[in-house]
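worker-3 :: picked PurR-regulated permease PerM
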Amino acid sequence: MAPTDDTEPAVRHAATPTATTPHARPSADGAAAPGARMPRWLPRAMVLALALIAAFQLGSWAFHQLTGLLINILIACFLALAIEPAVSWMAARGMRRGLATFLVFLGLTVAVAGFITLLGSMLAGQIIKMVEGFPEYLDSFIRWINETFHTDLRRVDVQEGLLHSDWLRKYAQNSAAGVLDVSAQVLGGLFQLLTVSLFSFYFAADGPRLRRALCSVLPPARQAEVLRAWEIAVDKTGGYLYSRGLMALISGIAHYILLQALGVPYAPVLGVWVGLVSQFIPTIGTYLAGALPMLIAFTVNPWYAVWVLVFVVVYQQFENYMLQPKLTAKSVDIHPAVAFGSVIAGTALLGAVGALIAIPAVATLQAFLGAYVKRYDVTDDPRVHGHRSRGPGSPGLITRIRRLAERRPGAEETSS
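worker-3 :: tokens ->
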């Protein structure tokens, strides 16, 4: 029994270090032993990665859900910047800022409502005129078909065929179903208009308070930069809208005089339509604005539509090369190619809203960067003016032609 007692402690003593070792040794082929433990930083890294993924997904979902609200806020900021000069002008003369903002909004509402009312009455009158004259148009069309194709059609047969056709029945069903969609879109548009109006009213009325709240979280050096950017944005946005408004007034008066001279009905409304649409819808606004007066003039006399088209084209050239550079030289001075590219980019990003705010946004960015980009005097190099560079001893084009002309007779004599 004694040898057994002597060997047991030795065996136990040899086995103890293996049991208390914190990390198992790797095997000969480099793989971890079965008793290896996970590093302490790995669970935390996994939890942090999952938390970041969840936060990204939640933020992406919230952004997509709030896209409409963010676009409305962007439009409201644009409108607030546009009416800021008028509100500040009235506030500087002793009027409360909230009352000044209300008066500006009231004036805009009255102007828009009056324009919509006049345009609606014009369209309603044209629709009534077309409905009343539809039998006459139909008779003339049937007469032309009978004379051209030697048929015997009657208006009564055509009307009965239309009333009993499957196409008319399907069209009526689709129209009845579309009424609900149109009503929903109208209600949604009214709600969106109310949202934009409320946000823009608060932004314009509480402009100084918003600036103070924004500057309170920034150091003094940054506060000056933010206020400078805000001032540039107000100047460029307001200048853009006011210059466009002045050009819309001039364009409306010019087209009104033409339409009134031709005897086209609804000349005042059409003049306002051409002025507003051509100036506030970028790129294609001129063509959309001229289409409606041409259509109304065509109903009076087809040659009147041609005269309206010629006048629209000529006035557009006068506006592009004479009127617009003088009115927008101080407010929005950007290259036409840059303006066109900004409109395309804004349309691709935000649709019609992006097309409307693209030009003042680019003008604001250009003016803000121009204050910090250092500029140098350009050297008097011919390449700056678009001419090719020649060495100091290289002859000009006329000199080289003259030398070739002088060499030709000698070359002919030598060859002979």
